[in-house]
Amino acid sequence: MPAQQKARVRQLIAALRKAHPDAKLALNFSSPLELLVALILAAQARDDLVNSVTGELFHRYRTAADWARLDENDVRRVNFYRNKTKAIRAAAALLAGKFGGNVPGNLDDLLTLPGVGRKTANIVLGNAFGRVAIGVDTHVLRLAQRLGLSKNTNPDKVEADLTPLVPAKDAVAFCHLLAFHGRRFCTARNPSCATCPANKLCPKIGVPA
Questions:
Q1: Does residue 46 sit within a domain?
Q2: Which of 50, 61, 111, 193 is such that its CA lies 20 to 30 A from the CA of 1?
Q3: pTM to 2 decimals?
């Protein structure tokens, strides 16, 4: 079964690459620090809204010390902005005080930062540092279950299920592909199974009747 699953995952990746050649991380950033801030702001918020907010902020806040003094009014348009402001300030202060103002490039250190869990840490590692990492967001979680790649609902356990199945060289791209596919075809309530490019490779587990 593991060998068959790995083969199916390779087929899925090929089909999704063909369907979504533009798949990439939806958040704009030009440094690990900018990505970290964007990810904290993006929790339960639309990526396009976060991009519209950070587009201006990234010109004003450039260092960890800058972000440690973030004015909450500058992120007021993002939901839960007060809590997110506190998390960004605390994470940035720790970066400035302990890591020389730099975002660490390893999982253990990233997880010590306020507002950073495994999903955020893995997305930073994969997209800002080019490491092999699988960040399980809502799309990856949902599609991993529908595609029969995991039976778990806990993101950390889904990550553990996917890691041995997805080729290391495709790990980061796989997450982008699932995110794009989740928005365009495999939506939560009304997935477009009839026109889905991965239809023949999908067991459609939990798909609404």
A1: yes
A2: 193
A3: 0.94
